[in-house]
């Protein structure tokens, strides 16, 4: 039952957390609850098993169960089926291809591929091009490149490399989490219009859209999906001043759930704002009381706005 989508729509894609129960086992009921909540919020689709999904903490059986539960909720049983993007990056080309095949089998529409980084000094453009090209040749799913230096031992894919990879017919876009607007604009200028370019964070969503991106994979959209989607809608309606004000309001909360507190911050934000979230899988630690208080101070203004967007 592979996903049938071939063109990835623009818009906002939450990188969905993987939820765990108090015994550190998969909590698929909470995952499905979260997907149902997001379905009517305006998001364009979902990213599974990315950095915020703690992909590195999952074994192969858990990946299969997570994919199956997500497909059941977000595609097969959904009133509004949306694309599933599955994180399939691994440290070997062989394993990356295997993850792509697994994701296709369980109904994903696209595969998101982080570069291998265990041997970063050997991952030059020649090695990385060979890796991505081989994966794209073999993958039953279209490929999105995932450029995130902070999760790949500092490997920052160059504009030249990304544009060369964009020539492969099965490599259809990039999520760029380098926060480099100049790079993003260079990609827009050089890649074909059909190559889908997404920002990797809500804190640069407006400048990324101005620069030519078609959306974002944004962790904050798990917590405040309507508000993040509203920012893109304001841009598309050419209400730039309103968009600028909203962008500034998003930055403190976005920083808290990404660069400052990471996965633990995202889950704590969900717990506070929507009543579920839980804790990350060990060795990641939950936030301390002091960290929770600091996080909550950034969330309060957006929490009220999200309720307003929901009621509107």
From TrEMBL:
Protein's UniProt keywords contain Lyase:
yes
| Residues at the active site | 146 (proton donor/acceptor), 175 (schiff-base intermediate with substrate)
Give one Pfam family: DHDPS
Q: Which SUPFAM superfamilies match?
A: Aldolase
Q: Which family does it belong to?
A: Belongs to the DapA family.
Classification via InterPro entries: Aldolase_TIM, DapA-like
| Protein name per Swiss-Prot or TrEMBL | Dihydrodipicolinate synthase family protein
């Amino acid at each position: 039952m592979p996903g049938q989508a071939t063109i990835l729509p623009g818009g906002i894609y939450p990188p969905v957390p993987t939820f765990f129960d108090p015994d550190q086992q998969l909590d698929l009921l909470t995952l499905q609850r979260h997907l149902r909540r997001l379905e009517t919020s305006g998001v364009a689709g979902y990213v599974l098993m990315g950095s915020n999904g703690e992909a590195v903490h999952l074994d192969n059986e858990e990946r299969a169960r997570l994919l199956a539960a997500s497909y059941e909720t977000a595609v097969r049983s959904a009133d509004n089926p949306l694309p599933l993007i599955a994180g399939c990056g691994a440290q070997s080309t062989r394993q990356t291809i295997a993850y792509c095949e697994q994701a296709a089998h369980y109904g994903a529409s696209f595969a998101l591929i982080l570069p291998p980084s265990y041997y970063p000094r050997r991952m030059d453009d020649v090695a990385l091009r060979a890796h991505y090209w081989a994966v794209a040749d073999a993958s039953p799913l279209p490929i999105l490149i995932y450029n995130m230096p902070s999760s790949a031992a500092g490997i920052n894919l160059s504009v030249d490399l990304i544009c060369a990879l964009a020539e492969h017919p099965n490599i259809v876009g990039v999520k760029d989490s380098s926060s480099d607007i100049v790079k993003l604009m260079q990609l827009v200028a050089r890649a074909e219009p059909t190559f889908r370019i997404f920002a990797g964070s809500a804190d640069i969503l407006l400048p990324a859209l101005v620069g030519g991106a078609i959306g974002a994979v944004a962790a904050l959209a798990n917590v405040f999906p309507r508000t993040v989607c509203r920012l893109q809608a304001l841009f598309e309606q050419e209400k730039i001043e309103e968009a600028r004000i909203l962008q500034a309001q998003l930055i403190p909360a976005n920083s808290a759930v990404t660069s400052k507190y990471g996965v633990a911050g995202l889950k704590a934000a969900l717990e506070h704002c929507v009543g579920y979230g839980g804790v990350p899988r060990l060795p990641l630690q939950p936030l301390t009381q002091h960290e929770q208080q600091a996080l909550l101070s950034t969330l309060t203004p957006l929490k009220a706005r999200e309720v307003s967007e929901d009621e509107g």
